[in-house]
Amino acid sequence: MTALLEAHALGMRYGRRRALTDCTLNIPPGHVVGLVGPNGAGKSTLLKLASGFLSPTSGTISVLGNTPGSGTGQLARVGFLAQDAPVYPSLSIADHLRLGARLNPRWDQGFAERRIAQLQLDPTQKAGKLSGGQRAQLALTVAAGKRPEVLLLDEPVASLDPLARRGFLNHLMESVVEDGTSVVLSSHLISDLERVCDYLIVLVSSRVRLAGEVDEITATHHRMVCTRRDPGALPAGLEVVSATHTDRQSTFVVRSDAPLPAGDWAAERLSMEDLVLTYMEAADSAAAEPATSATSTGSAAGAGSTEGAEVAR
């Protein structure tokens, strides 16, 4: 089965700054992927590499089995929506749909017109007069109207109010269900991702810290609270992701493929938000203490005209 996205030792530099380091991923098709991490973690860079807007400085990346941006056939299979949901302010909604039809061989005019009608938008309205949420919906309509096999969305809901975010995500999932489109969605809003995503990637400081199916990840991570002890005193087979201590108590977040053994501790599963924040904090701690090993931190789990071009893609 051809991977949705496959990367091996992928790296990207901007001058002296590393945007991605040794990124290795193999994402099966058919998923809605949540891509999370702090600002500067490399999320936008990964999506731009996957869409073909950038070329890596090291390693390899493929999307749907092909090099990103390698010809019109590959471009037709991948839709990309940049963070600022770019549209042409001087063009009407109908103009955007006509532009989409001219630039995309698989364009579905009926789908695009239905979405605009569902959103109760006036096709004659200039894009520059739309609200932020309406512009995002127009940009999503153009990206989805090309009928891609995968949609790459870079924080498309970051500037939207909660109601507009919900509407955007609902229409996104309608497109996924209708077409079977795979999606990679970058966002800081973990609660939104929790509603729609079934695969998770955590990027921190240019590296993949965690990647896998949400159900599997949440089933294999636990928070354990017990009398104070060192991580080395825990049973074998428990990977310690993070550890905090008081005078009398220790709290560990552990990963284990097997059921937790019995012991003198209370254990509970973590929510997606807790899980993401734990890996982000562990990675920050590791960066602050270079001598700390990867095992103790759990940091290696993941083994203008330009704007118009991004709309058309």
From TrEMBL:
Q: Which UniProt keywords are given for this protein, alphabetically ordered?
A: ATP-binding, Nucleotide-binding, Transport
Question: ABC transporter domain: from which residue to which, for each copy?
Answer: 5-230
Q: State whether keyword Nucleotide-binding applies.
A: yes
Ranges in a coiled coil: none
Q: Which InterPro entries is this protein grouped with?
A: AAA+_ATPase (IPR003593), ABC_transporter-like_ATP-bd (IPR003439), ABC_Transporter_VariousFunc (IPR051782), P-loop_NTPase (IPR027417)
List the residue ranges of the region (Disordered).
Answer: 287-313
State the Gene3D superfamilies in the record: P-loop containing nucleotide triphosphate hydrolases (3.40.50.300)
Q: Name one GO molecular function term.
A: ATP hydrolysis activity
Highest taxon listed in the record's lineage:
Bacteria
- Report the Pfam families cross-referenced here: ABC_tran
Q: Which PANTHER family match?
A: ABC TRANSPORTER ATP-BINDING PROTEIN ALBC-RELATED
Its recorded name reads: ABC transporter ATP-binding protein
Source organism of this protein record: Actinospica durhamensis
